[in-house]
Amino acid sequence: MSAKVRWSGVVFGFFGLVLILLLHWQVFFWVSTERTMGVVQRIFYIHVPAAWVAFLAFGLVALCSAVYLWLQDERLDMAAVSAAEGGMLFTTIVLLTGPLWARVAWGTWWTWEPRLTLTLLLWFIYLGYFLVRASSENSQQGKRFAAVVGIVGVLNIPLIHLSVQFFRSLHPAPVVLRPEGPALPGDMLTTLLTGLAAFTFLFSSFFLFRYGLERMRRVSVHREMAGGGDPGAQGVAS
Hints:
Strand content: under 5%
Radius of gyration: 20 Å
Distance between the termini: 14 Å
Low-confidence stretches: none
CATH topology: Four Helix Bundle (Hemerythrin (Met), subunit A)
CATH class: Mainly Alpha
Structural class: mainly alpha
């Protein structure tokens, strides 16, 4: 792992941890309590930023995968798989915090309403991304197939966002991404943005460290396979 990648990861991680501490202070001691749902609504400041960062991560997977299929540059595949792991992590946070909120707000841990179902589908699509990578004996073929999954999977994200507008849903309508502007009070919007910034910095740190580790692993494999082996390892050391 290069010194530049390592120190960039450390810096992003530091800012992420500072902002996470600030977020928790805002959630527990500063932001006002929502009148209808009460204290449980404060999960919103974890749940929603995690979802946004997961979408960002999977968007990065799709972008890197598309360019990888075009250029066949191993660095783009390394970036894609690193972002996919981060996306899976933050989607898992979404799927864990959602039921905690739903149990109080809706009276049930889980219901098969559109946004929940599509988010769970997103998690399984990118689980399939990793399964496809590992299922082929030819690593290059596995990477190409996984890249296609990564591109197709991102098409689910607009459906998740628009599901509350086009289908009967228990989720409320958007309160931030609205044509007329956010509907949240100032302190709630500030806390939400703090959560988004914190998770973005943490994802960036995770991504850089994971990319560095993936590069080291492939360089090691390339050296071991030098002189005749898996062609999928070729070109990584450049």
